[in-house]
């Protein structure tokens, strides 16, 4: 949702009318989304098994397609941009059946299933990383725009990296998303708790954890004498990223892009079940630049994590250099580039 929001923010500066098509899941992330109208669609995960589940999925997608077609016609839409995931399917295929120009934007380094199916008929396939795997034959333009980021991320990027002093506070931010927060609590809280006393005494940790694990993880930090703020979700994550000295996170497209734009050193833990291993491939950009280390989920133990963290957190020169390296691979003007492509569609 964040790249879509970024494009919408840029679109509003150009005086465009913005209609957001999404499902109930996406609706939870629309706070602050600058849409003139939000249309709630039915959508379903196509990767279901069994005849009953498949029939229910097909019926839901048909109803979503019908709603999307109606909205596109009512609003006299001139162009459609899809950002992947099955909630985008009804809007993209409604555009195709109405012969409207449409683009897809792939945030990950591997083209997702919905975008993969839409790409052959798309006028534009834009992508966020230099590498894009699983691309089918297509008739339209292929353009690397980078991943658009929200206004909040661009503002956070204005905050320079303040490298920790040898005996000063060391702020660590840990967030793992809905599928990673539990693992991160089991691995990184005890990893940080096992670090040498003098390093532990400097730590200030901000850690996203599920509510069910909050008390347990808090107890680990408290027993180790580590100052820690825990919550299931942080609404001001860009600002917290900018205030941190070191970030531990998954390597979803938005996380990797925002870490690069804000410019912070990181330890990335790709989601092991991610489709086509796309999170590991996403991480390659920061790892190759020297801005991040990679810890595979299968190898993520407190002992392994502590062994990786100790030399990094004890080396302010590496931290500062990694922060600069992260900024060096940040996309520039991604939202503007994507909006320019959409504008070209409107002119054709």
UniProtKB/TrEMBL annotation:
Its main location: membrane. It is found in: Cell membrane. It holds the Pfam family Glyco_tran_28_C. It is an enzyme of class 2 (transferase). GO terms for cellular component: plasma membrane. HAMAP family: MurG. Cell wall formation. Catalyzes the transfer of a GlcNAc subunit on undecaprenyl-pyrophosphoryl-MurNAc-pentapeptide (lipid intermediate I) to form undecaprenyl-pyrophosphoryl-MurNAc-(pentapeptide)GlcNAc (lipid intermediate II). PANTHER family: GLYCOSYLTRANSFERASE, UDP-N-ACETYLGLUCOSAMINE--N-ACETYLMURAMYL-(PENTAPEPTIDE) PYROPHOSPHORYL-UNDECAPRENOL N-ACETYLGLUCOSAMINE TRANSFERASE 1. This is UDP-N-acetylglucosamine--N-acetylmuramyl-(pentapeptide) pyrophosphoryl-undecaprenol N-acetylglucosamine transferase. The gene is murG.
